[in-house]
């Protein structure tokens, strides 16, 4: 009798930290590249021991990054509007919109009893859509900094791109 209860507890805890259904659907239908980053992986790529980066990632348990090449995958503005609507239907609330260097940033958050269950940072430009589906949280004023670091930091960004490319090549074999 103990085992079914333990199984249910493990299953419930797994589902509370799973990525969103909308991100999974986006990944299956439109993804050009997808990879996961766990807290330990993020810390590992920080070989220069950048204290600011450690502070950025301190409350992130894991992050799924989905990149969509809009032209290659025929991802339109209507698809983007539906994506945002689908996240809202999963009880995510849009908490910030911003524009920076030609990119639009939408940040959505899901809370329960004052605890952040997940965050989404959606970056949309003329060529691509990036979804950072975060289990855990990041301070709102640091969302763009996290994306910039992942996207272009000479040290951290390049290490993450190397990990992502290795994962992609392994999956193709």
From TrEMBL:
InterPro entries reported for this sequence: DUF4252 (IPR025348)
Pfam families, A to Z: DUF4252
Keywords for this protein: Signal
Signal peptide positions (record): 1-18
Name recorded for this polypeptide: DUF4252 domain-containing protein
